[in-house]
Design brief:
Strand order of the largest sheet: 8-7-6-9-12
Strand content: 15-25%
Radius of gyration: 23 Å
Number of strands: 17
Oligomer: single chain
Helix content: 25-40%
Structural class: alpha/beta
Mean pLDDT: 89
Largest sheet: 5 strands, mixed
C-alpha cells in the first residue's frame, strides 16, 4: 500500500508542479497524516524539496484552509527536487549521442549538455561515454536512463533488434553502461520516452498516439494517463508497415517499409531522385517545399504515412495523435498535408472530433518519468520498509 501511495503522490505532484501536504492529501483523497509522512520521507531522501509559498486556497489573506476546512497557518509547499542532479540521461541516436545530468524535477524541454558522434561499435561508444562522464557535472547519481531505438525488452534491459544501430543489440550493453558510472541503468525505448515526456508536459492529454519522425518512424500509445502495456516488447513500429509499390530495402531487412519513404533518409533519397542536379540537403528540401509546395512524390509519401497512422488510430480507438520529430523542421504545409491524410482515414473523424497536434520532443522529461517509476519508487519502498 505504501508503494502505491508513494506512486500516486509523486504522480500527483508531477501534475501539480508545486503543492502543500494538505493539497496533495485532498487531491488524492488521502488522509493528511499519511500524505505528510510520505512527503517527509521523500524530503529526507532528496526526492522532494521545499519551496517558498503558501497553499493556493488562501494566498491573499495569509491564511489557508486545510483539507478539513479549518483555517490555519499556510502550509509549506513542496515540489520534485530541481536542485541536485540524480540521473544521467542519454539519447543513443543514429548520428549522435546526447547526454545530460537530470534532476528528479526535470524540465519540459530537452536541454542536452553534451553531444558526441555515435561511433560504429559498442566498444568505441563506451569509450566515448567514459570521456563524456568526466565532462558532466558530478553528483550522487541514482541511475542512468538511456533512450534507445529499436525493439527493446525494457524489463531485462536488452535491445532485441535495432535496424539502424545493430551493435547496440549486444547483451552486455546494459552492464557496460552501468560500469561507466557505477549505478543502475535502464534502457527505455525512445518513442515510449517521448510519449512519457509529452504526458509530463500535458497531463490532461491522457489518451493519444505519439508518432515520431527521424531516421526511423515509430510510435507509442498512452491510454488513461499511462503507457500502454504491450504484451510483447515491441512498441509502435509503424515505420515497418509495408507500402505497396515501394521497392526500397529497409534496415530491418524487409522491402517496402513506410519509413524508407518518410524518414529523414528516405525523404532525402526521394528528393535527390527528383532533383538529380541540385543540392541534396535537409535545408534544400525545406527551401524547395517553401517555394513549390508539396511535390507529388512527397504527397504520396505523406499519404502512405497518414494511412498507416489512421489505421493505428482505428485499431486503438483513439482520437488524438501527437506528431514529433523531423517533419516539424520542414514548412508547415508538410504536417498540414499529413494531418489531412490522417483525418481522411480515421474512422472517428466521420462521427466526432479528431486532434492532430505537433509537439516538440520532450525526451529528457520522459527519461525522468521512467526513472521515477523504476528507480525512485522502489528506492522509497526499501527505505520505508
Amino acid at each position: 500500500m505504501r508503494h502505491l501511495n508513494t506512486q500516486a503522490l509523486l504522480g500527483c505532484l508531477r501534475r501539480l508542479g508545486v503543492a502543500s501536504r494538505a493539497e496533495l492529501a485532498k487531491s488524492m483523497g488521502m488522509s493528511q497524516p499519511t500524505a505528510g509522512k510520505i512527503v517527509d520521507d521523500l524530503l529526507s531522501l532528496g526526492v522532494l524539496e521545499e519551496v517558498g509559498g503558501e497553499e493556493s486556497s488562501g494566498r491573499e489573506t495569509g491564511k489557508t484552509e486545510n483539507a478539513g476546512g479549518r483555517l490555519g497557518r499556510p502550509g509549506r509547499m513542496v515540489r520534485l527536487d530541481q536542485s541536485r542532479p540524480r540521473f544521467i540521461g542519454i539519447q543513443l541516436g543514429v548520428v549522435r549521442t546526447q547526454l545530460a545530468a537530470l534532476t528528479v524535477g526535470g524540465v519540459d524541454e530537452d536541454r542536452w549538455t553534451l553531444q558526441i558522434p555515435t561511433p560504429d561499435s559498442l566498444e568505441a561508444w563506451i569509450r566515448s561515454l567514459r570521456a563524456a562522464a568526466r565532462k558532466l557535472p558530478q553528483g550522487d547519481f541514482w541511475g542512468v536512463v538511456v533512450s534507445v531505438p529499436g525493439i527493446v525488452d525494457e524489463s531485462i534491459g536488452h535491445i532485441l533488434f535495432s535496424p539502424n544501430i545493430h551493435w547496440s543489440e549486444a547483451p552486455e550493453l546494459l552492464q557496460m553502461i552501468q560500469d561507466v558510472w557505477g549505478v543502475p541503468a535502464l534502457l527505455v525505448q525512445e518513442e515510449r520516452a517521448l510519449a512519457l515526456g509529452h504526458l509530463s508536459a500535458q497531463p490532461e492529454a491522457r489518451d493519444f498516439l505519439l508518432v515520431d519522425f527521424g531516421y526511423g518512424v515509430g510510435g507509442a500509445v498512452v491510454v488513461d494517463g499511462r503507457l500502454y502495456a504491450n504484451p510483447l516488447p515491441i512498441s509502435g513500429e509503424l515505420g515497418h508497415t509495408p507500402v505497396k509499390g515501394n521497392s526500397r530495402v529497409c534496415g530491418c531487412g524487409a522491402v517496402g517499409c513506410v519509413e524508407t519513404l518518410i524518414s529523414r533518409r528516405g525523404l532525402l533519397e526521394s528528393f535527390g531522385a527528383h532533383h538529380p542536379k541540385g543540392e541534396i540537403t535537409w535545408t534544400a528540401l525545406a527551401q524547395a517545399i517553401e517555394k513549390d509546395g508539396i511535390a507529388p512524390w512527397l504527397g504520396e509519401a505523406l499519404n502512405a504515412a497518414g494511412n498507416v497512422i489512421a489505421g493505428a488510430l482505428n485499431v486503438l480507438g483513439l482520437r488524438k495523435v501527437v506528431l514529433t520529430g523531423s517533419l516539424g523542421e520542414l514548412p508547415p504545409a508538410v504536417l498540414d498535408h499529413l494531418s489531412a491524410s490522417i483525418l481522411s482515414g480515421a474512422m472517428w473523424a466521420r462521427f466526432g472530433e479528431m486532434d492532430c497536434q505537433e509537439a516538440p520532443r520532450r525526451r529528457t522529461a520522459g527519461l525522468v518519468g521512467m526513472a521515477i517509476d523504476r528507480l525512485v519508487i522502489p528506492m522509497t519502498a526499501r527505505e520505508g520498509s
